Amino acid sequence: MNEGAPIVYHGNGGFEGPGIYMIPGHVERQTPRHYPLEMLQVMGGLGSRGGGSPGHGTPRRWQPRKERQPTKTDNTAFGYDSDDSSLSSNASGSNKSSDKGEGSRDREVGTVSREWRGRGRREQRQRRIAPERYLSAAYPFQVKFTPDDLLNGSKWDTLSQEIWDKFVKSQQTEETFRKKMNLWRYLYITIKSIFPRYGLYVVGSTMSGFGLDSSDMDLCLYVRALADLEPRAHALLHLNYILNYIKSFDPGAELIQAKVPILKFRDERNGLQVDLNCNNVVGIRNTNLLYCYSRMDWRVRPLVAITKLWARAHRINDARRRTLSSYALTLMVLHFLQCGTSPAVLPRAGEAARPRPHNRCTLAELFLQMLKYYAEFPYEQMAVSVRAARRVPVWECRARAALAPHADPSHWKLLCVEEPFDLTNTARSVYDPETFEKIVTTFRESYARLSTGLRLQDAWPQR
After folding, report:
1. C-beta separation of 307 from 328 below 8 A
2. Beta strands at 382-385 and 390-393: parallel, antiparallel or unpaired
3. Are 370 and 443 in contact (CB under 8 A)?
4. Which of 181, 206, 201 has its CA nearest to residue 191?
5. Structure confidence at residue 123 as a pLDDT band (50, 70, 90)
6. Which alpha helices (H) appear in 195-298, and where do they start and end?
7. Whole-angstrom distance, CA of residue 115 vs CA of residue 113
8. Is there a smaller number of Cβ atoms within 10 Å at the N or the C end of the chain?
9. How far is residue 50's CA from residue 33's CA, in Å, rounded to a whole number?
10. Which residue has the higher pLDDT, 423 or 69?
């Protein structure tokens, strides 16, 4: 996976549609007006009686107003009984302050002293860090109810039910999510105590809604970039700092020096595999995008989940083994739902919501159509693009990469899946012709068997 608010995140306390990044506007607060001393003297001169001319007089001193002595003693100041024992000498019914001190002097001059007592300040609630806000928020991802239109009495019902059952059993549970949030909280507090200027964000399927219970946890370490240091070298520098700390509880932690360096380690206590990158902030943005797509149609998440499980079973879902990453597979499914079926299930990224014809295909039909779409895809000429919701010519992607800094046109080779934000190839790990042919063959053979038997096991590897 290419790191919130936080989670994000980022960071809002709940999961109510973080679909659009918004920068809060600057709100100006009115501050008290400060007058210079000369102005105060002018104001004082205008209000004085026989004491100097306007503009040159001195401010009139305030004198306490003499009042008549009350005939009956009021034992309660302002008729208010304070519950605060620390203030009982000033505003309690005992009126002890009148026995001595200022109270006795006031009686000597014939005045009544009324003491001002302001409201007690509320203790400011300590601001919770992002992991704690997610821990206390409701978890919206775990599906527990079957959609009404899952089955329609057609020949697709059996396959649709099998896909749905497999999705429900494999989806990320609330228990797993809480474990990840607790690990995030622990790492956040500990890393910030050692490196105060570091930021730590959860990205990827954990937050996007496409997580499986067996999915890794993706984290993004954010450090302010240095202008005179190449981004990859900068990332390796800081990940090496963190590596020494991570090895204190996972001696098997390793730093993978890929184009996007990844620090991989395991939380043995909760059985969580963690991938930590540095400054790959595009992961925060695409997590937000995927979250929005996951909420648009109930069929999106089951299709992504079943495609991941299918790819894992065929061993074509591991970027380290020169096959497809889970993120690339997710983008391929979203792209198919944009332009591989008619009418489209999903809109183009960034497109304003507008009424469109509703696609009524079942889960079974969409999964079978998706396998066919990529079994016949013109990989040599076209690239998958969720940003454009269409097939983009590979030559166009290479030409754009040649003009962009830190981009490499050679990454656009055999299988091309465009990243919506930085326009890189998320499938660049597929550079070996033999591995590429295995992926395409898997799509073709799975489609041929599934279209014949219409049972989910037909799409799985045959023993």
Report:
1. no
2. antiparallel
3. no
4. 201
5. low
6. 205-208, 231-246, 282-294
7. 6
8. C
9. 29
10. 423
Q: Return the higher-pLDDT residue of 185 and 249.
A: 185
User: What is the largest distance, in Å, between two alpha-carbon atoms of the chain?
Assistant: 111
The mean-pLDDT minimum among 22-31, 59-68, 304-313, 368-377 falls in 22-31
C-alpha distances out from residue 265 to 21, 168, 217, 297, Å: 30, 28, 10, 34
Residue in 441, 249, 415, 456 with CA at minimum distance from that of residue 329? 415
Give the position of tokens 């998440």.
Answer: 301
C-alpha distances out from residue 34 to 30, 37, 48, 305, Å:
12, 9, 22, 63
- In sequence order, what DSSP letters do the residues of 267-281 get, joined into one string? ETTTTEEEEEEES-T
- Can you tell me the mean pLDDT for 150-175? 97
| Tokens found for residue 154 | 């057609």
Q: Is there a contact between 370 and 378 (Cβ–Cβ < 8 Å)?
A: no
Joined together, the tokens standing for residue 355 give 């009424």
For 29, list phi and psi in degrees, rounded to 5.
-105, 140
The answer to whether the CB of 251 falls within 8 A of the CB of 268 is no
pTM of the model: 0.73
Angle between the 363-375 and 433-453 helix axes, to the nearest 10 degrees?
140
**What does the pLDDT read at residue 231?**
86
